[in-house]
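Researcher: Quick test of sequence recovery. Tokens follow.
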């Protein structure tokens, strides 16, 4: 029995090293008082005003949003096609390197006096940790509007930050994760911010 347990433990530890760590997706949603029109009818996913819908990255997020809309009951149609509702998609991605807090060297001085004399001490600290790794932050926003009136029926925002070397920094995996988090429990509690793992 013990002979079988050890290889199984080693295998499970090895496989956990293959799994990419995922941070939570922070999601905030808002919806109109009347949620009856949501989740039914035809809908087209189009770029929000001022956003480019021609990039491959945008198209990956568009496809992920369309999949989630179909799962909640919509019939998706191509962008620009007549539909009862439109989902306007905003997308921004940026890479940055977090700043290290404090300097690489710190000096501390302390002293004391008492009835047995006085003392003075000096301490030097050297930060040997590596520079923080580059991060990729993605912000996704979707507004579902009634096509005829332009009235906003639902709005969702999601943001997600991962290391640039993480598999989730790739558009295809990140798009699917963010779209799933954004529409989880649709339409959601209006005004509430949640973290979806």
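Model:
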């Amino acid at each position: 029995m013990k002979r079988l347990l050890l290889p199984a433990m080693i295998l499970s530890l090895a496989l956990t090293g293959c799994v990419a760590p995922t941070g939570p997706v922070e999601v905030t949603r808002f919806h109109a008082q009347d949620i009856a029109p949501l989740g039914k009818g035809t809908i087209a996913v189009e770029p929000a005003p001022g956003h480019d819908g021609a990039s491959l990255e945008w198209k990956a997020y568009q496809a992920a949003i369309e999949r989630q809309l179909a799962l909640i009951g919509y019939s998706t149609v191509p962008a620009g096609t007549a539909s009862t509702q439109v989902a306007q998609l905003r997308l921004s991605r940026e890479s940055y390197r977090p700043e290290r807090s404090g300097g690489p060297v710190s000096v501390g001085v302390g002293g004391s006096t008492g009835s047995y004399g006085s003392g003075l001490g000096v301490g030097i600290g050297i930060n040997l940790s590596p520079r923080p790794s580059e991060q990729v932050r993605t912000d996704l926003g979707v507004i579902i509007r009634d096509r005829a009136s332009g009235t906003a029926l639902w709005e969702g925002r999601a943001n997600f930050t991962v290391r640039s070397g993480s598999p989730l920094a790739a558009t295809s995996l990140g798009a699917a994760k963010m779209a799933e988090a954004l529409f989880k429990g649709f339409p959601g509690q209006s005004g509430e911010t949640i973290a979806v793992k």
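The CA atoms of residues 116 and 162 lie 56 Å apart.
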